[in-house]
């Protein structure tokens, strides 16, 4: 396996292009509970992240009926990213005050489980501005969201 950097510029360009649209190469998960993590996964893929086709615990998308839970489910995505030691993207938790473009912010409930994923696209005055699907947004400050807690994932590399 080779560790390679994610192309954050390609990831951010994808987010800008598709923030208010749906890429027809992927299913729209809004009718199934939300498209936010599917959008984040697409952004990572656009940045060059290799898929991990491990059944049940990987990170991949072939079709609506052939995908990993981590591709489109916020909490599954988190578990995959922080524990992945095989193919595909991996990352670490970091303090939200250190967020940078390309990082993923997840909003969490009272039990600390993620229910929404956002991509940091830039910083203004030290505040992360984000792009996301479900409620489609681009360049929205994190402070406009209401949440109990959040976590920030730094995803700079992938294994292929």
Task: Please supply descriptive tags for the structure shown above.
single chain; 160 residues; alpha+beta; endopeptidase fold (from Nostoc punctiforme); seven-stranded antiparallel β-sheet; two-stranded antiparallel sheet; 9 strands; globular
Structure write-up:
The protein has 160 residues and is of the alpha+beta class. It has a single domain (3-159), classed as endopeptidase fold (from Nostoc punctiforme). It is 22% helix and 33% strand. The chain has helices at 8-18, 36-46, 69-72, 74-83; strands at residues 3-5, 61-63, 66-67, 88-94, 104-108, 114-124, 127-132, 137-141, 149-159. It is globular. The model has no long low-confidence stretch (mean pLDDT 97).
**Large-scale geometry:** globular
**DSSP summary: helix tally:** 4
**How are helices and strands ordered from N to C?**
EHHEEHHEEEEEE
> What profile does the largest beta sheet have?
7 strands, antiparallel
For the termini, the CA-CA separation is: 6 Å
Report the count of strand segments.
9
How confident overall, as mean pLDDT? 97
Are there runs of 5+ residues with pLDDT below 50, and where? none
Outline the secondary-structure elements.
Layout: E1 3-5, H1 8-18, H2 36-46, E2 61-63, E3 66-67, H3 69-72, H4 74-83, E4 88-94, E5 104-108, E6 114-124, E7 127-132, E8 137-141, E9 149-159
Antiparallel strand pairs: 1-9, 2-3, 4-9, 5-6, 5-9, 6-7, 7-8
């Amino acid at each position: 396996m080779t560790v390679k950097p994610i192309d954050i510029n390609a990831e951010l360009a994808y987010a800008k292009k598709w923030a208010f649209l749906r890429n027809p190469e992927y299913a729209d998960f809004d009718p199934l509970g939300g498209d936010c993590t599917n959008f984040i996964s697409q952004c990572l893929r656009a940045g060059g992240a290799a898929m991990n086709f491990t059944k049940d615990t990987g990170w991949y998308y072939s079709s609506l009926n052939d995908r990993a839970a981590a591709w489109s489910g916020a909490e599954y995505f988190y578990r995959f990213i922080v524990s992945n030691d095989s193919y595909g993207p991996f990352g670490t938790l970091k303090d939200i005050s250190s967020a940078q473009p390309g990082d993923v912010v997840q909003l969490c409930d009272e039990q600390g489980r993620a229910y929404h994923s956002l991509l940091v696209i830039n910083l203004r005055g030290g505040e992360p501005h984000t792009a996301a699907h479900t409620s489609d947004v681009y360049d929205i400050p994190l402070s406009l969201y209401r949440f109990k807690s959040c976590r920030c994932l730094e995803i700079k590399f992938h294994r292929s």
